[in-house]
Amino acid sequence: ASRSDDDLLAGLNPPQLEAVTYRGPALLIVAGAGSGKTSVLTRRIASLLRSREAWPSQILAITFTNKAAGEMRERVRSLIGDRAEGMWISTFHSACVRILRREAQQFGFTKSFTIYDSGDSRALIKRLVKEHEGDAFGLTPAGTQSRISKLKNELADAESYARQANMSDPVERVFVEIFGAYQRELQKANAFDFDDLIGQTVYLFRAFPHVADQYRRRFRHILVDEYQDTNHAQYALIHELTRPIGSDAAPVASSGGMMIFEPEPVGEDAASLTVVGDSDQSIYAFRGADIRNITEFERDYPGAKVVLLEQNYRSTQNILSAANAVISNNFDRKEKRLWTDVGAGEPIIGFTGYSQHDEAQFVADEIESLHKTGVDYSQMAVFYRTNSQSRALEEIFIRSAVPYKIMGGTKFYERAEIKDALAYLVAVANPADEMALRRILNRPRRGIGDVTETSIARYAADQQITFRDALANSSALGVGPKLQAAIAQLDAILAEATAIMLPSTGELAPPTAVAEGLTLLLNKSGYFDALRRSRDPQDEARLENLDELVAVTREFARNNPEGTVIDFLSEVALVADADDLDDASGSVSLMTLHTAKGLEFDAVFLTGVEEDLIPHRISANEPGGPAEERRLFYVGITRARKRLYLSLAMTRAQFGEVTVAMPSRFLQEVPSELIDWRQSPGDVNSRGGSRSRALNARPSGGSDSGSWGSKRYGDDLAPKSTAIDKFPNRIPAKVRDNGDLVLASGDRIRHDDFGEGRVDAVTGEGAKRVAHVRFDTVGAKKLLIKIAPIAKI
Ligand code: ATP
Ligand code: MG
C-alpha cells in the first residue's frame, strides 16, 4: 500500500480494515451502535475510488437522510479530494427521483412530475374518501392513507390487492375503489407520492429491463447504510439493481402482492453490494421497515461475506453498559456486547421534575453549566419521543436564552403560506397538477369561490382539456366579468412566470430564474400585498417565512447554477426530518428520537422517560410495540459520547389533559448504580406524599432538589389532586411582552423568579434583545427581554 493508502486505513481495527478492503459480490457489516459502520462505509467508497477500482459515477451510496448524505460526501472528499465528484450519495427517495426524472416518460409521466408529500396525498385521499362515501364504511382519510402506504411499501397496487382481498366485504370493496381512484388521480396530475417514488422505480426496472440494465451497468458498487430500516420496496429496488446485467426474468407476484424472489446466484456481471446495519436500531417497522432484510441477507445473497464490529468508539463505558443492559431485555436478538477502551466516564444523571416545565428548566440550567465548562452548544442535544414535547422545552429555552434549533425541516414547508407559494411554482412547473391550481385559485382572495371552481372543472371536463387550459379560456366559462378578469389575470401571471422559469427549448434560464419567478408570482398575484395590508400580527410572520423561502431559492441558485424550478421543487419535497434549513452550529439541537438515528453528541438529554411516552401509549399494546420502543430508547442512549441525562416529570400536560406520569419501565432496566439521581422519583415521592408505582431508585448523596424550587414553572398545569399543590412559591409564569422596555447597563431590575439584579449589558436587536443580568442571589443570567418576567426598578 502506498503512503496515501496508509492514512486512508489508519486507525482502523482489524474487522474494520477487513470491511474496508474486502472485495467480493456481497458484504454485510452488522454491528452495534457507534462501532464505525458509517465510517467504514465511507472509507470503503474512498478506498474504491483511490485505488481506481471504481469511477465516481459507478458508486451509488444510500443514506437515511439528505443530511447524512451530505456528510458522507464531504467525508469522502476530505479523504480523497476531487476524485469524489459525480458519485450518487443520497437517500432512497432522492436517488429514485433522479432516476424517474430521466425515465418517467417511459410510462406515461413527464419529467416535470410533482412529488406529493404526505400532506398532499392526505388531502387527495380525503377528497376521494368523501366522494366514495367511505366514512359510511368506517374509512377515515388517515387510516386509508396509512393502509395504502403500507400496501405500496409491499409493492402491492390496487389491482393486485383486489385479486386477493375479500371483495364480498363491502368495506374492502370501497377501499379498493378509493385506492384505484387515488392512483388514477396521481397519474392524471403527473404526480408521485413518496411511496411511489420507490415503488414506481421498481416497476420501471421490472417492466423495462433495458432501462434497468443501463443502471446496472452504471452502478457497479452499491452501498446502503442503516439497512435494518429498509422496507420491502427498497429491498426490491436494491435487488433489481444487483441482478446480473441482461437478466430480464421478472419475479412473480404471490398472494398479498408480496414479491417473492428465488435466490439467484450473483453472476459476474452483478454490481457489488455492501450493506451495514444493526437490528437493535430498527425503529421504522411502523413504516414497513423489515428487519428480515438484514437477518436474511445471507440467504438472499449467498456467499456474502459477513463482518462483525464490536468495539465502540463513541461512548463511555457507563453509557454503553446502560445501553447493553436495556437492549438485552429484547429477546429474539443476537447477543452482542459493545465495549470501549475509553473508560467508565461520568455517571448518567437522572432528574425528576414536578412538571414538564420543571424538567425543561433543569435541562436548560444543565446546558448552561456544561456550556460554561467549555462544551459547545452544537455538541448538545435534547431528545423527546413526540414532537409536542418540544413546546415546553422551547418556552424555557427562550426565557433562559439558550440558543436552540429544532431539527425537523419539514415543519417550515408545512406552513400554509409556504405551501401556497410552492403551489404557485408547481402550477408553473407541472400544469397537469390540478390540486396545486385549485389551491391557488383563491389565494389571495380574488372572489373565486366553490361555484366558480366547479364551473372551471366542468368546462375542462366538457372540452376534454386540463384545468390549467380552462383557466386560459376565461371568457368561455360563463362567469361574470369580474370573475373573468380575475381568472384571466391569474392565467397571465402564470404564463409570465413560466416564460421566466421554463423558457422555450434551447433558451437558458438564468440561475436566478426560480427566485425571480417566485417573487413575480407573489407580487403580481397580490399575495405579498394582502399580507402587508393585514393587521393580523401572524401575517407579519408569514411574510418573514415567504422572504425566507425566497432566500432558499437564491441559495439554491448559488448551489445549483443550472437547477430548474423542477429541481428546486424536488429538493424541497425531499427535505426530511433530520434535515435542517440552516446551519445548526452554535445551537443546541432538539429532535425526536427517530430523527436522532445515526447522529452523535457530547451531551445528550433524553427527556420524558415516562410510561405512555416511551414506550408510547399507542405502541404499548401492539405486537412488537414495546420491543421497538426499547430499540428507540437504545438509539437515544447510544447517541451520547460523554454525558447522558435521563429526565422525566411527575405530571405532564399531554393530549389536552394533565396526567400523573409514571417513570418508564426502561428506566428500571438501567442498572441503578450507573445513575446519579439529582432528584429522583424517590425524592419527589418522599417529599410529595404517596405516589403509586414510583420507581424504587436510589437517591444519591448530596441531592439538592430544593434548589430547583425557586425556578418551577407552570403550576397552572398541575392537577389539583396531587401533592404538588403543597409546594409554595410556584409562581405561574405568564408570557408577557416587554418589547418596548428600554434597558441599559447599570439599570436595576426585578425578575419574578430571580429577584433583583443589575443589568451588565444588552445585546441583540428588536425581539431578540438579550439582557445580561447579574442577580443578587442567583448570579448571572441571560434573559430575552421581550418575554422575560422583568420590570425596571
Ligand atoms: P450508528 O449505529 O449510531 O450509526 P456507526 O456504527 O455508524 O453508529 P460511526 O458513526 O461510523 O458508527 O462511528 C462512531 C464514532 O466512532 C464516530 O465518531 C467515528 O469517527 C468514530 N470511529 C469509528 N471507527 C473508529 C476508529 N477505528 N478509531 C477511532 N474512532 C473511530
Ligand atoms: Mg451510522
UniProtKB/TrEMBL annotation:
<feature type="compositionally biased region" description="Low complexity">
    <location>
        <begin position="700"/>
        <end position="710"/>
    </location>
</feature>
<feature type="binding site">
    <location>
        <begin position="31"/>
        <end position="38"/>
    </location>
    <ligand>
        <name>ATP</name>
    </ligand>
</feature>
<dbReference type="GO" id="GO:0033202">
    <property type="term" value="C:DNA helicase complex"/>
</dbReference>
<dbReference type="InterPro" id="IPR014016">
    <property type="entry name" value="UvrD-like_ATP-bd"/>
</dbReference>
<dbReference type="Pfam" id="PF13361">
    <property type="entry name" value="UvrD_C"/>
</dbReference>
<protein>
    <recommendedName>
        <fullName>DNA 3'-5' helicase</fullName>
        <ecNumber>5.6.2.4</ecNumber>
    </recommendedName>
</protein>
<dbReference type="GO" id="GO:0043138">
    <property type="term" value="F:3'-5' DNA helicase activity"/>
</dbReference>
<dbReference type="GO" id="GO:0005524">
    <property type="term" value="F:ATP binding"/>
</dbReference>
<dbReference type="GO" id="GO:0003677">
    <property type="term" value="F:DNA binding"/>
</dbReference>
<feature type="domain" description="UvrD-like helicase ATP-binding">
    <location>
        <begin position="10"/>
        <end position="316"/>
    </location>
</feature>
<keyword id="KW-0378">Hydrolase</keyword>
<keyword id="KW-0547">Nucleotide-binding</keyword>
<dbReference type="InterPro" id="IPR013986">
    <property type="entry name" value="DExx_box_DNA_helicase_dom_sf"/>
</dbReference>
<dbReference type="InterPro" id="IPR014017">
    <property type="entry name" value="DNA_helicase_UvrD-like_C"/>
</dbReference>
<feature type="region of interest" description="Disordered">
    <location>
        <begin position="678"/>
        <end position="713"/>
    </location>
</feature>
<keyword id="KW-0413">Isomerase</keyword>
<dbReference type="Pfam" id="PF21196">
    <property type="entry name" value="PcrA_UvrD_tudor"/>
</dbReference>
<dbReference type="InterPro" id="IPR000212">
    <property type="entry name" value="DNA_helicase_UvrD/REP"/>
</dbReference>
<dbReference type="GO" id="GO:0005829">
    <property type="term" value="C:cytosol"/>
</dbReference>
<dbReference type="GO" id="GO:0000725">
    <property type="term" value="P:recombinational repair"/>
</dbReference>
<keyword id="KW-0238">DNA-binding</keyword>
<keyword id="KW-0347">Helicase</keyword>
<keyword id="KW-0067">ATP-binding</keyword>
<comment type="similarity">
    <text>Belongs to the helicase family. UvrD subfamily.</text>
</comment>
<dbReference type="GO" id="GO:0016887">
    <property type="term" value="F:ATP hydrolysis activity"/>
</dbReference>
<dbReference type="InterPro" id="IPR027417">
    <property type="entry name" value="P-loop_NTPase"/>
</dbReference>
<dbReference type="Pfam" id="PF00580">
    <property type="entry name" value="UvrD-helicase"/>
</dbReference>
<feature type="domain" description="UvrD-like helicase C-terminal">
    <location>
        <begin position="317"/>
        <end position="598"/>
    </location>
</feature>
